[in-house]
Amino acid sequence: xxxxxxxxxxxxxxxxxxxxxxxxxxxxxxxxxxxxxxxxxxxxxxxxxxxxxxxxxxxxxxxxxxxxxxxxxxxxxxxxxxxxxxxxxxxxxxxxxxxxxxxxxxxxxxxxxxxxxxxxxxxxxxxxxxxxxxxxxxxxxxxxxxxxxxxxxxxxxxxxxxxxxxxxxxxxxxxxxxxxxxxxxxxxxxxxxxxxxxxxxxxxxxxxxxxxxxxxxxxxxxxxxxxxxxxxxxxxxxxxxxxxxxxxxxxxxxxxxxxxxxxxxxxxxxxxxxxxxxxxxxxxxxxxxxxxxxxxxxxxxxxxxxxxxxxxxxxxxxxxxxxxxxxxxxxxxxxxxxxxxxxxxxxxxxxxxxxxxxxxxxxxxxxxxxxxxxxxxxxxxxxxxxxxxxxxxxxxxxxxxxxxxxxxxxxxxxxxx
Length: 417
Known about the structure:
The protein is mostly helical. It has 17 helices and no strands.
């Protein structure tokens, strides 16, 4: 048995608790893409404008983002397991309520409540998986990103299948799946990750964490990165509708392809790249490619094949970015992982929240390609932030010690000369 195959299998050799949390993560992330294929149907059935419908993303992401800042404070007082279970229970209630709604305003409100549950769950899940997984931080993050990718892939497909019956179907489907996740975590998460006495963190900890230069730079990068991410995810269904791709099932398949690309690249391509390059170099290589990807969609705005191809290519690039950015955040500081995760995730989701309504307003008031051009500009800004802050990101690259060694070597060479 070679070393490579052992390390490859170590990601899969995890305690049952980790698999329970990972399963619930898949379902939680399904919630993001689930509404994607049914956006046009909701707009049509409830006489809502595209901008109103896009607020289904915004209300969810704004509340997720704001609540993220406080999740480490909550989980450090009541423990990871209780926080995860409360988060799941809140999602079950609000997803079911959204399915029972009669107007778009109610769904927007219930999606906000869903976002609160999501924040409690997602932020704590990352810290729990990193803490309980075997094989170190990197393999735990790859597992988490695989769950994210799988959730993003399955979400639109489930949304498309259930949405072809009724736009209410995906909401009820999520409520049922989250209830299954609740049972899985309550029975399987009995390890130290769920039971050990937590050390309370201060309410201000995530805000103070953003004072750390490395975390601040990565959070600022994530704001613009997520803007571009959600232009692609949330606005593209409306770009495809005039081209005849409007049914929930066809949109579901388009974004299933996108999500599979995200999953594949986050698990396989990202580690291949980080094995050969510093994380920051991977980030500033992939971000401009994402900008070009959105420019290509803007230029091919009247071609179904063109849009679908570049949506899937975008998924491959986004998967790499998700893994590398998350790894960078976890390695950037010596802060507790739950605090770093809360601070970074809070800012990241707020960046995503702005994109959907802004994209539909740009399309309505300027031109159909305008949202994608705005997303491309956001990716370019994110690139510039990483390049400008690269010195502060040495720890994210695992290069702080290396730099000192290089300096020492340079001094020795100088002395010898």
